[in-house]
Specification:
globular; alpha+beta; two-stranded antiparallel sheet
Length: 116
């Protein structure tokens, strides 16, 4: 699966991933990658309904990321908070990627948290 997600780890020892994901066969092609056709901005309202603590916040103020696929490898672009192995495991579990070839990238400026 590919898609976009937000990370909620505000509760002590609890990590939750709020994702919108699609099957790889339904993904769009963008720059030789298979991707979810919608962006974080477009799905923020839907995600806020699932985590009401985020109502009133901007989508860029919550740690987030995206899972894409290219050449047999799933790439996870995420905020640096996802360097935590527990969070990585939750992302892999959410997208059903346990055992798949996966690479994490924490340097993409798109996933930096912005506080307004």
């Amino acid at each position: 699966m590919v898609g976009i997600f937000w990370i909620d780890c505000q509760k002590v020892n609890i990590v939750q991933i709020f994702a919108d994901k699609i099957l790889l066969k339904d993904a769009e092609t963008y720059c030789n990658h298979r991707v979810h056709p919608r962006g974080h901005f477009q799905l923020w309202g839907k995600i806020q309904k699932r985590n009401r603590r985020w109502i009133g916040r901007e989508y860029e103020s919550v740690p987030r990321g995206r899972v894409v696929w290219k050449d047999g490898v799933y790439y996870v672009y995420a905020n640096k908070i996802a360097k935590d192995k527990r969070i990585q495991e939750k992302i892999l579990e959410e997208f059903g990627l346990e055992g798949c070839r996966t690479k994490f990238n924490f340097t993409d400026a798109h996933y930096k948290i912005h506080n307004y």
